[in-house]
Each structure stands twice: as C-alpha cells, then as structure tokens.
Specification:
mainly alpha; hpI Integrase, Chain A; 3-stranded antiparallel sheet; 5 strands; 9% strand
C-alpha cells in the first residue's frame, strides 16, 4: 500500500480545497454515501450500501461485511465540510431546476445523479498527478487514515471499528507495521513509564 505522511496528505488537501469534490477526497473511503446515511447532529455516518463499477456497469449493493455497516464518528471539521457541501449541492439543485435528479447521494453530478465510482478514481488520479506528490490510489487514503490514527495514538480497537474490520488481528497485522514511528513511540513511552517510576523512588536505573 502507498501511504502518504500527514504533511503530504495536508499538501494534497490544501491543493484541492477548491475542487468541487473536495468532501469526497476528505471521505475517500466512503463510496455511494447518501445523505440518509449521514447524521450531522449526532456527528456520525453509517454506510449502508456501496456502488461498485464492474464489467462496464455500476452495481449497488450492501457493504462487503456487517462490520462495514457500523456507525462512524465524525469530527467537527468533517461536519463543517459536509454542511458546506450540502449547501453547495442545494445551490446546484436550484440552478438545475427540473433537470435535478433527487438521488439523495452526497456526491453527485451537477444535476444530482450519483457519480460513477470510476469517475472518482480517474479524477483522483488526475489531481494526484497535478500535485507532484508520490503516486497513490484513492483507496490508499483509507490506509492512510488508519495509519495516521495510529500515529495519533488512537486505540487499536477504535481503529478496527473505524475500518469495519471483523478482527482486530487483521487491523494489527495490516497497519501496525506500516509506521515504524508508532512502534518507536511505544518503546519510548514504555521505557519512560519505568524511568519515571524509578525517579519517584529516587533511584537511578542507568549505569
């Protein structure tokens, strides 16, 4: 997997901040998201279906596993981004008039039709190429979100729920080894606990 650092991700998001699909890049892991899946008051979303491009057609179906249907907590910035996106979508609806298709999807064309997954993939590829950043796929942003959460010292069980993994072993095996600094921080903090305890006892552990 290709995982951007937080600086690279910040550079990308800053560079595409004016793109119409900016909220989609912010929530890159969520395909086929509908407004009925988003509760901005409860600050959470639930993915109840996915749109997949296969054999030249777009197929709508349930998520791959029951774990994928769990509610995902939203931070304040994500809520702000989504509120602004909904306002812009309402403006597009007013401009389109009778041409507007009330599909209910969060990410749509200028006339309200849901975007094709392959369009999102292609558009993301163009933006990455223009950014000058290391190559990354749209799905890689999902991996990046997990590794950054771990780097921010988020509990592994919370990351498991965020990703919808059925097993915490899968989460650990997939992500913990991706960012060596996570392991290094853990080692430093573990040693720090012992050193601080020794300090309280007024004893020196180093020779």
């Amino acid at each position: 997997m290709a995982v951007w650092t937080e600086q690279q991700l910040a550079a990308f998001l800053t560079g595409v901040a004016q793109d119409r699909l900016y909220p989609a890049w912010w929530l890159a892991a969520l395909r086929g998201l509908r407004w009925t899946d988003v509760d901005l008051q409860a600050v959470e979303l639930t993915v109840t279906q996915q749109r997949v491009h296969a054999d030249g057609q777009v197929v709508v179906g349930p998520p791959k596993s029951a774990a994928d249907c769990q509610a995902v907590a939203l931070d304040a910035e994500t809520v702000r981004v989504l509120i602004r996106h909904r306002e812009r979508q309402e403006e597009l609806s007013a401009m389109a008039g009778t041409r507007w298709q009330d599909s209910g999807y969060v990410f749509t064309t200028a006339t309200g039709a849901p975007l094709r997954p392959d369009y999102l993939t292609g558009r993301f590829r163009q933006l990455v190429a223009a950014s000058g950043l290391p190559p990354a796929r749209l799905h890689d942003l999902r991996h990046g979100a997990a590794t950054l959460a771990l780097a921010a010292r988020t509990d592994l069980k919370v990351v498991q729920a965020m990703l919808g993994h059925a097993s915490i072993v899968l989460t650990a095996d997939t992500y913990v080894s991706v960012l060596p600094e996570v392991a290094n921080k853990a080692a430093q903090e573990t040693a720090g606990l012992v050193l601080r305890a020794a300090s309280k006892l007024r004893r020196e552990l180093s020779t």
